[in-house]
Write a structure and sequence with these properties.
The structure holds 2 protein chains of 2 kinds.
Chain A (H helix, E strand, L loop, with lengths): L1 E3 L4 H15 L4 H22 L5 E10 L5 E9 L14 H6 L7 H8 L2 E7 L2 E9 L1
Antiparallel strand pairs in A: 1-2, 2-3, 3-5, 4-5
Chain B lengths: L16 E7 L2 E7 L4 H16 L4 E8 L5 H16 L3 E5 L3 H10 L6 E3 L2 H8 L4
Parallel strand pairs in B: 2-3, 3-4, 4-5
Antiparallel strand pairs in B: 1-2
Helix pairs in contact in B: 1-2
The chains are: A alpha+beta, B alpha/beta.
Chain lengths: ~130, ~130
């Protein structure tokens, strides 16, 4: 699935994740966690990536562990300028209150809501792969 | 946690609607839909209008909202700051488990109380007569 870098496109993407979550009978609350993590990955790219093709490339996967645990995986890929993860400052509410800019929580929210998160980034762009177990 | 209700449609377009009501020195704000920058700004407009008219405390009832993104949360934090500047109080209620979890991840719960019901939230921010 490819979505344009445009307002509210992130919510369009969440409909696909929700449909797949429902297909494997994932709980509504877990689906909401996937939806929010996906929203955050999309708006991070919209705001910071400066995508060369003005698009985000999304891949949705369903799978099962050998012992039977089913999962839903979402991958968000942009062809933007990439970023250095080591330079991303850990957010805190204290810093948020003292700062004029109240942002910077996206990656923290993604990592907290999803069970497994892998981020790779370079001059080619950024790929965020997020997995949630049923 | 229950399984997804197949009859409950997930809306693709979820423009947030905000309504409010004043009860003494407390204003209750109800949201309906996705809270992003526009939804957050709508909440802020409504909240600031009440604060400018002398409301001391706000209760945000999010029971009809399933997603608040980080931009929306950043605007809610600005509202919270304004309330704290005025020595008032802000409480949330009706949060989905995901929104509750997100607010706690961020530490927002240290500055604004979270209650399961609107009645509890209103009672907590109301000053005794």
């Amino acid at each position: 699935m490819t979505i344009p870098v445009a307002p509210e496109m992130e919510i369009v993407a969440t409909a696909q994740a929700a449909a797949l979550g429902e297909y494997i009978a994932m709980s509504r609350d877990k689906i909401d966690e996937v939806r929010l993590a996906l929203v955050e990955a999309c708006i991070n790219a919209f705001e910071h990536a400066d995508c060369r093709d003005e698009q985000l490339h999304l891949t949705f996967r369903l799978g099962q562990e050998p012992k039977g645990r089913e999962w839903l995986e979402v991958e968000v890929m942009d062809k933007g300028r990439g970023f250095d993860q080591a330079r991303v400052e850990e957010p805190s509410m204290e810093k948020t209150f003292s700062s004029h800019r109240k942002r910077g929580w996206g990656l923290q929210i993604i990592k907290s809501l999803m069970d497994d998160v892998d981020i790779t980034s370079g001059e080619w762009g950024t790929r965020i792969r997020m997995r949630k177990y049923k | 946690m229950g399984n997804a209700d197949p009859n409950e449609e997930i809306q693709v377009s979820e423009t947030c609607k905000v309504s409010s009501e004043r009860r003494g020195d407390v204003a209750i704000l109800w949201t309906d839909g996705y809270i992003n920058n526009q939804g957050g700004e709508e909440i802020a407009r409504e909240a600031y209008a009440h604060l400018d008219r002398g409301v001391r405390a706000l209760v945000l009832n999010l029971e009809k909202t399933r997603i608040v993104n980080s931009i929306g949360i950043s605007i809610l934090i600005e509202v919270l700051e304004k309330v704290m500047d005025k020595k008032g109080a802000l409480a949330f209620c009706g949060l989905t488990p995901t929104i509750d979890k997100t607010f706690r991840i961020m530490g927002l719960a240290q500055y604004a109380e979270i209650y399961p019901t609107q009645e509890d939230a209103v009672r907590s921010v109301s000053q005794p007569a």
